[in-house]
Amino acid sequence: MQLLAANAALIVIDMQNGINRPTLGRRNNPDAERNIETLLLGWRATRRPIVHVRHISRSPESIFWPGQSGAEFQPCFVPMSHEHVVEKNVPDAFAATGLERWLRVRDIEQVVIVGVITNNSVEATARSAGGLGFEATVVSDGAFTFDQRDLTGRLWPAEDVHALSLANIAMDYASVRPTAEIVQALNGG
């Protein structure tokens, strides 16, 4: 990976308490939170911009309904006062949130995307980032998903769902890199 611009933004998607509910099922990448936290600390140390995305559901039955603990950020991902927070109601963090404008006003061209769910909000956001002309990177081990049934009822392991989603992203929208490469780029090398 080439060097990261001094204003490359880290976009942390939906790292909320609700994502840890056992009802969501079995997940992949148990080290994702540690990797995301490593990147978050690196961004803070280098004073690069950070965007925290929070899903606020329109459905009262959702774990992300406003006012419930599930909608709150996980303790290690609580934004600092100077970090930007975007609230979204659909998977794509760019849809009706002002995120594109916030990035453009600051002349931010590079975005690094981490969070959940790989095949939902991460993929939707990466697709928009690439489509809008941002130089986007998704951190392969800084995201995770859950086992998922297809429309025929077949259960797909989270590892396969994750891998296919990353392949979709890499096809046309963003580069896909592991945390170690991003940390190296963050540190100038």
TrEMBL record:
UniProt key word Ion transport: no
Statement: the UniProt record of this protein carries the keyword Cell division: no
Database matches in InterPro entries: Isochorismatase-like_dom (IPR000868), Isochorismatase-like_hydrls (IPR050272), Isochorismatase-like_sf (IPR036380)
Keywords, comma-separated and alphabetical: Hydrolase
GO molecular function terms noted in the UniProt entry: hydrolase activity
Residue ranges constituting the Isochorismatase-like domain according to the UniProt record: 8-148
Pfam families per record: Isochorismatase
Coiled-coil blocks: none
SUPFAM superfamilies registered for this protein in UniProt: Isochorismatase-like hydrolases
Cleavable signal peptide: none
Protein name: Cysteine hydrolase
Organism: Trinickia soli
